[in-house]
Amino acid sequence: MDNIYLPKLVKVLDVRKHTQIEWSFLLDYKVEEESGRFVMVSLPYAGEIPVSISGFDSHGIELTIRNVGQVTSRFFKLNTEDILYVRGPYGNSFPLEKFQDEHLLIIAGGSALAAVKPVIERYINGHSSMLRRLDVLAGFKSPKHILFREDIKRWKNSRISDKCIDIEITVDSDEDYAWMGSIGFVVNFIKNVKDIGEDTRAIVIGPPLMMKNSVRELLAYKVKEENIWLSFERHMKCGVGKCGHCRIRDKYVCIDGPIFNYTEAKELID
Amino acid sequence: MDNIYLPKLVKVLDVRKHTQIEWSFLLDYKVEEESGRFVMVSLPYAGEIPVSISGFDSHGIELTIRNVGQVTSRFFKLNTEDILYVRGPYGNSFPLEKFQDEHLLIIAGGSALAAVKPVIERYINGHSSMLRRLDVLAGFKSPKHILFREDIKRWKNSRISDKCIDIEITVDSDEDYAWMGSIGFVVNFIKNVKDIGEDTRAIVIGPPLMMKNSVRELLAYKVKEENIWLSFERHMKCGVGKCGHCRIRDKYVCIDGPIFNYTEAKELID
Amino acid sequence: MADKSKMTRFSSEQGNTIFNILSRHYIIIAPVEKPGKGRFSDTSQVLYEQVDSFDEIEFFKKTHLSAKSVLLPLRQTMFSFRDNKPEEIDDEIRPMIIFLRSCDIHAIKVLDAHFLNGGGYTDFYYSRLRQKVKLFLIECEKPFENCFCVSFQTNKTDDWAAFMRKVKDGYEVHVRDEELKAYFPRNAENVAGPRFVEQDSCPIKIPQDIDASIFEDDIWKEYTLRCIACGRCTVVCPTCSCFSVQDILPEDKSAGERKRLWASCMVKKFSILAGNHDFRIKEGDRLRYRMLHKIYDFRKRQGFNMCVGCGRCDDVCPEYISMFKCVEKINHIIEAHSING
Amino acid sequence: MADKSKMTRFSSEQGNTIFNILSRHYIIIAPVEKPGKGRFSDTSQVLYEQVDSFDEIEFFKKTHLSAKSVLLPLRQTMFSFRDNKPEEIDDEIRPMIIFLRSCDIHAIKVLDAHFLNGGGYTDFYYSRLRQKVKLFLIECEKPFENCFCVSFQTNKTDDWAAFMRKVKDGYEVHVRDEELKAYFPRNAENVAGPRFVEQDSCPIKIPQDIDASIFEDDIWKEYTLRCIACGRCTVVCPTCSCFSVQDILPEDKSAGERKRLWASCMVKKFSILAGNHDFRIKEGDRLRYRMLHKIYDFRKRQGFNMCVGCGRCDDVCPEYISMFKCVEKINHIIEAHSING
Amino acid sequence: MYNTKKIIKNAFRISKVRGETAIRLRIPGGHLEVKYLDVIKDLAQRFGNGTVHLTTRQGYEIPGVKLSDIEKVREFMRKMIYEIEKSSNVILEEPEKGYPSAGTRNVSACIGNRVCQFSNSDTTLLAQKLEAAIYPNNYHLKVAVTGCPNDCIKAHMNDIGIIAGVLPEYDKEACILCEACLDNCKMRVTSALRIENYRIVRDEDYCIKCGECILKCPTQAAYRGKLLYRIIIGGRTGKKNPRMAGTFIEDASEEVVLAVCKNVYSFISRYIDPKPPKELIGYIIDRAGFDTFVHEVIKGITLNPEAKLAKKLDNPGYFYPVRK
Amino acid sequence: MYNTKKIIKNAFRISKVRGETAIRLRIPGGHLEVKYLDVIKDLAQRFGNGTVHLTTRQGYEIPGVKLSDIEKVREFMRKMIYEIEKSSNVILEEPEKGYPSAGTRNVSACIGNRVCQFSNSDTTLLAQKLEAAIYPNNYHLKVAVTGCPNDCIKAHMNDIGIIAGVLPEYDKEACILCEACLDNCKMRVTSALRIENYRIVRDEDYCIKCGECILKCPTQAAYRGKLLYRIIIGGRTGKKNPRMAGTFIEDASEEVVLAVCKNVYSFISRYIDPKPPKELIGYIIDRAGFDTFVHEVIKGITLNPEAKLAKKLDNPGYFYPVRK
Predict the structure, then answer these.
(1) Class of domain F4-97
(2) How many CA atoms lie within 13 A of C3 on its CB side?
(3) Which fold has domain E108-165+228-309?
(4) What ipTM was reported for this prediction?
(5) Which of A141, B73, E277, F309 is 20 to 30 A (C-alpha) from D45?
(6) Given C36, C74, C268, which is nearest E176 (Cβ)?
C-alpha cells in the first residue's frame, strides 16, 4: 500500500526574491503542467503547508511562498541546493478547455496571483491561438507588495504585440507616492474591462472579501455564474481529503478544489 | 449642719526626712493626744488620704508619710510654711488603760511604726509609772528602710536607764552588709521577748502577713486573744464611715478602728 | 394603709394641669422608658428622669437604675478650691418628688440610716438633698421578674407623701402630705388604696446568723469563675452607696472641685492601698463581700436588711449571677455547717 | 441475525482460560470502568482499554470516549526524520479485538468510508490498523440516555466477528469469524442472539435536504452564546476524525517524528490560515459546521449518515447542548422555510 | 437539552453529576421563618437526595435534583421564593420562573442585634433593605453586613462589606471612672480611650466605633449615639489575588450605604471587562483606578456629615505568583 | 440564675434579650439530612420565635429561646445532635446535656465535590473527619475546608483553612494541543502552563493545583493525580488585626491535615495566654513565633513526601491603629 503522506526530498534549484516576504523557489520536481494545483511542502520540525504551483518549467516547478507563518519562515532560510520535502501535486486545475476561444478575465488579489500565473503565462506565450481576449486585473496592497515584477513587465510588453491582452496592476494605496499606476481595489477596475459580458470567463483568486466583491461586480456585468471560477485557500494538513480542515460542507478544497465553479462555490459556506 | 468633709488649711511647721521616701511633717494642727488615730490629709488635685498621727507635740501633730502614691508624692514637694488640707482626727485610739502596769509588747513592721510611735514615746518618757515592762520589736525591709533612727537611738538609750525596756530592731535582709543588728522577720524575734505569756499585752501593727504571723506566734506563746490589739490600714475616702471602702463585714475601719482587739479583728475577714 | 375614701381620681387632661402647677414647685422625677437608650442597640431602658407630665411616667415597668442617683448623684461636687480654699458650692436645691415603688422607698430608708446617722456622722450632701424630697408611691400589681421584696419585708410601706396609680384615661391618687394636698383635687372616690405584692414568685430565706465559716466555702471560688467584676450589680442597687473622691479641674479651668463619684466594691481598686496591696482581688470574694453586706452585715449594724429585694442586681448581671441563688447556697452551707459542725 | 443455535455459553472461569489463549493472539480492547478517572473528583469513567480478562469488561455502560482512538490514535506517528529522511516506523501491529455496540460498529463504517476510500485516497495508517481489527458486538438491552441509534438506523448490525453477552456467572457468545471459532467452545445452546434496541426514547427526524438558507438562521447566534468551543463533542464522537500534523522531537532528542494529532472543528485555530484569517470564529458557526456534517454533508458525499446516534456528544457537553434538540430546531427551520419560502 | 446559562441565571447550579442541578435559595440576611423548612424538606425529598447544604452565604443548596425536574421544582418553590423575597420588599415578577438572576449573591448578614449583644444594628434588616436595593441583578456582587468590627460574617471577604458601628456618646457626669471601658478598649480594641482630668477622652483617630465601651460601662455614661457604617470594598478569594476588602467610606449613614451599593452597579456596568465570565469588582477597580471608582460611586450621593472617603484603597492580600 | 459560662460552653448563646438564649446547632461540613428540619422547625416554634438564622459557619441559630426552657430544649434536641455528630463519628457522651463544648466551632466546608465541578475533594466528608479529630474541644478554633483555591468557604478567614488541590497528571500521548488548559490557566489562574516541544509543561513553581486544566482538557490528557491540601493558618477578622490565613503546609496529604489540626491544640494549650477569654491562634503564633508553632505542630507527624513547610508565615491584613 502506498503511503500518501510520505514526502519526497526535493532540491532547490533557484530562489527568486520578489519582495521582503515573497520569494519563489524553483524546485527539482517535475510534474505535469496543470495550472491551479498545489503541492504539500514541508521541512522537519517546520510543518507542512499547501503551496500553489506558480510555474511549470522544464527543470521543475516554481513555488511562490509568502513568509507569514512558522513553516514558511523556515523556507526563507533555504538556499539553492538545499532540500525540501514535497508531495503532490494535489487538487484540481483550471478548466482550460472552457476558456478556449473565449474572453478570459483573471482577477487576482495579492500573492494569489502566483496560483494563476501559469495560466497567464500559458496565454501570454500563445494567446492568439487560444483565447479571444485576455484581461488580467491584479491588485496589491501597495507598490512594495507587487510580485512578479519582471513577469508582469514581460506580460505588459506582450500587449504591445497583441492588442487582445490587457494587464492592469492596481494597488490599494500608495503611501510612499512612488506608484505611477492605478490606485484602488481591483473590483473597481472591472468596469474598465472591455467587452465584459455574459460569455466572459472569469477566474477570481485572492482574499475572501476581494473574491466576494469581485464576483458581485462580475454578476452585475451579467457574467454568467457558470462562467466564473474561484480558487479557494484553506487550512490543510493532508492535501488528500483526510484531515478535515479544508472541508466546506460536502466538499474538500484539497481534493474537490481548490478551483470551484461559482455555481458550486456559492453553496460553499464555511 | 456641719460639713464633715470640709478640710481645714494647716501650715507645715517642719519636715523631717528619714529615708528617701519617708518623711515626717510637723503640722500646725493641735489635737488631743490619742495615740492610734488618724487625720485625712489632702491637697487640691492630689486627693485625700488617711495618715496616722505619729507624734503629738505642743506645736501640733506629726505625720509620717511614705511616698508611694499620687497623693503622697505631692506632699513631698511641701516645705515649711506650706499649707496642707487636714480634717480629723478620726478613728479610735489604743486602749492605754488596758496596759496599765502590764507587760506591753509592741510589734511593728516597717512604716507602721509611725502609728505606734506616740505610744512608745509615751512609755519611754514615763515608763516606770505606767508599765511593768515594754518590749518593742520593729522590723524593716533593709537597713536603709529604717525610720525614726534618732528616736530609736533615744529609745535604746533610755533602756540603759530602764532595764524594763527592750528595743529590738531587725531587718529582713541586708544585701549591703552594712547592718550590725539582727537580721530576720520580726516574728522570729518574738521568742526572744522576756516573760512573754498570757498576760502580755501586745500591739501588732504592720503589713497584713506580718500581723497574721505575729499573732499566730503570740498565741503560741499563750498570749490571750483579748490581750492582742491590731491596727488596720485600709483604703479610705471619707474617714467617717460613709464612703464604704474601709468596711470589713459590719465594721468600718475608720470609725470602729483602726485599732481592733484581736477577738474582734479575727472576725474581720476582708 | 391608705384609706379608700381618701383617694382621688383625675383624667389625663386634668393631670396635665395639676402637673403644670406642681412642677412650678417641685422637680418631678419618675420612671421613663427611653427607646434606643438601652445598652444594646435598638433596646430601650426604663430610667429615672425628670418628667414633664404624668403621662410620660412609666408606671408598669421596673427601672434599670434606681432613684438613688437623685440623692447621691453619680458625680457630686463637695466643694471648690477657689483661691485654694475649700468652699461649699451654694447651689439652690429645689424640692423634689420622686415616684417610687415600695422596695425603693425602703431603699431610701437604708440610705438614710447610713448617711444621716451611721457611725455618729451625718453626710452633709445627702442630708441636704434628702430634706427636699417627697416620696410618691407607685404600686406593683404583681412581682416583677427576680423580685423578692416580700422575703425582705419591703413589699409594703407607709412611708410616702402620696400614692399614685395610673388607670385607664387617668390617675388615682391619695395624697397624705399636707403641703401637697393643695395641688390635687378633692373628689373622694371609692377606689382601692395601694396594692402591695403579697407573695414572691420565689421566696428567699434570709439567713439569720452568718459566721466566718462561710468565708472558706468553695462557692466563692465558683463565683470567681463566673463573676466578671463589672460592677453593674452595685450600680443598679438602690442601697449601694460607696463613693470615691477626686479633685477635678473643670474643662473651663476655673476653680477645681472635690467631687465624690460612685464607687463599687465589685470593681478593681476599690480596696487597694497605695503600694498596690489589695484586700479583695478575686471576684468571688468581692461578690461575697457585697452579698453579705446586703443580707447580714448591714443588718448587724443597723438592725434591718440592706437588700430590699428589688432584684435589679439579678436583672442586670451579664453573667446571670443571681442574688436569690446565692442566698440559697449560703443557706445550704449554714445548714450543712449546723448539722455537721 | 444471529442464529440461536450457534450460541455458546461459558462460565467466568472458563472465560479466563479462553481469554488467556485468545490474548496470546489478540490485543483485546473493551469498555472498562475506571474509578477516580473521571474529569471531576471522585468520579469514574468508562473507557476503552486493553483488558486482561472478560470479567474486567463493563458490558452495561456506555463508554465516554469511543473506540476510535484504537484506529486513529490521539497522537499517531506518521514517520521519522532519521537522517532527515522521511521513514515509516515499522511497528509490528498486533491483531486486535474490539468490543463494540452496534452504533460504534456503524461508526467504524463511517471511518472506513472516509479513510479507506474517501476522495480516492487511502489513509495508510488507518488502513494498516483497520486490517488487524475484529469486531465483537455487545448488545444494548435498552437505549442509554441521549441515544438515538434507531433514528439513524445504526441500532442493528450484522458486521461483527463475534457477539458476546455477559450473563449471570458467565458469558454467552456467538462466533462467526472462522479464525476465532477455534478459541471458543462449541456447545450450541438455545439462547437468544444479540438483541437490538428497537425504539429510541426520543426519535429524531433526520432532515432530508438542507439548503443554504439554514446558514442564516438565528439559532446559530443562540448557540454562539451557549457553546464554549471546548471540543469535547468532537473528541468523544466515534466518527469525528479530523487531525493536525506536527513534527515533534522526542524527549530523548533522537530522531524527530511527524505525528498526527486529533483536531476538532469546534476548537480555535481549526480553520485558521497563516496570517490569522479564520473562516469560522463564532461558536455557533462551528457548531453548525459540525452538526451539518454529521447529519447531512457526509451523507451527501458518502450516501449514509455520519452520525450514528450514540449520543456521546450530548452526554459530554458541559453546556448541555443537545444534538437532538439542534436537529429538532433544524427541522423546524426547514419546515418553516418550505411553508413560507 | 438544557440551557445552562439560563439555568445558572435562575440560580440553579450545574452539578458535577451529569443531568443534575442543585436548587439554591436566597435567604437575605440569613433569617428565615421556619414554616419554609417544610417546603425545603419537601423539595429535598421529592426532587433532591434528601439532604440540604447550608451555604456560607446563608442560603440553602438542595443537591441531587434532576435537571429534568426543574420545571416542577420552579412551580413547587414559586410561592416560597416569592414570599421570602417579598419580606425584603423584592417583588419577583415571574416567580414561576425561579429567581430572575444569580449574579448578585444572597446578601448575607451576621446574626445581628436580634440576638447578639455586640451588634450595633439589625444586620438582617439592613441586608433585606440591600436586597431590595440591588436584587435582581446579573452582575456578580457579594455583599455582606456585619454588626460590629468583629466581622463574624467575614465582610472582609466580600465585594462590599458593611460594618455597623456606633458613635459612642459620653456623659461625663455619669462616669464613675471605673475604667472598664478603658481596660477593655486596651485589651480588645485599639486603646482609643484615655483618662484626662477624670473623664474619658475618646481619640477619634483610633476609635473603630465597635461600641464595646458602651457595653462595658456599668452606669451607661457611655451610650449609643449615631449608627454609622464602614463600607469596605474589594474583598475576595480566588485563584489570582485573594485579598481583603479595604475601607472605602468610614462612618456612612444607612442612606449612604444603600445609595453606594446601588451606584456600584453603574460603575460595574461602565467599567467591567465583558470577556471573563464574571469580573469581580476588585479587579475592575484595579483596572479603572480607585479615583474613577470613587467618582462613579458617589455620584449623586450627598454624604452624611460624618462620612469620610478613603483617599486610597488598601486591599491587603497576596498574589499567587504568575508565570510571565 | 444561669451559669452563662456553662451555657456558652454548651453552645447556647447569651442573647441581648434578657432571659433569652439562642440554640446553636453544629452541622459539620454544612450538609444536613432534611429529616432534621422537622426537629429544627419544632424547636423554633415551641421554644423560639419561629425563625432560624443560618450562620456563616453553616450552623443553625434558633433565636428567642427562654433560658428557662434550656433543659427542655436539651432534651428535645438530644437525639438530633447525637445523630448528627455521630454521622461525623463524634460520639456525644452526654447528649442530654447538649454540646459538650463550643470553643472549637463547627467545621465548615464549601459545597464540595458532591455538587461542585471545581471541587477537588469531598469537603463535607473531610470536615466531618476533622470534626471527629478535633471536637469536642474548648479552645476556640475555626476550621474550614474548601474544595479548590476559589475558596468559596473563605478558608482564608479561618484559624485553619484547608484548601483541596489536585496534582494534575498529564498523558502527553492523549494531548491534542488544543491549548484549552493553557488559555484557561493564563486567564483565570497563574499561567503555570506552557507548550514546549508540542507538550504541555506545568511549572511546579506556579501551579496552585486548582485542577482547572483537568476540567478543561477535552481528551483528559490532563487527569487527576494525588489529592493534596494546602493548610493555611491564622486567618481572622476582629478589632485589632484582621488578617488572612497564610500558607503553613503546601501539598499535604489528608493524614497530615488531620494530624496537624489535632496537634494545633497542643500548641494552643502550651502557648495560649489564659487571660483574654479566647486568644486566637494567630495571636498566639505572633507571640510564640512561627518556628515554635511549626515545631510544636509537626511534632510526631511524618509528612507525606510532597508536603512543603512554609519557611515563614505571611498573614496579609491590616492593623487598626492602636494608640500607644
Answers:
(1) alpha beta
(2) 5
(3) Sulfite Reductase Hemoprotein; domain 1 (3.30.413)
(4) 0.90
(5) E277
(6) C74
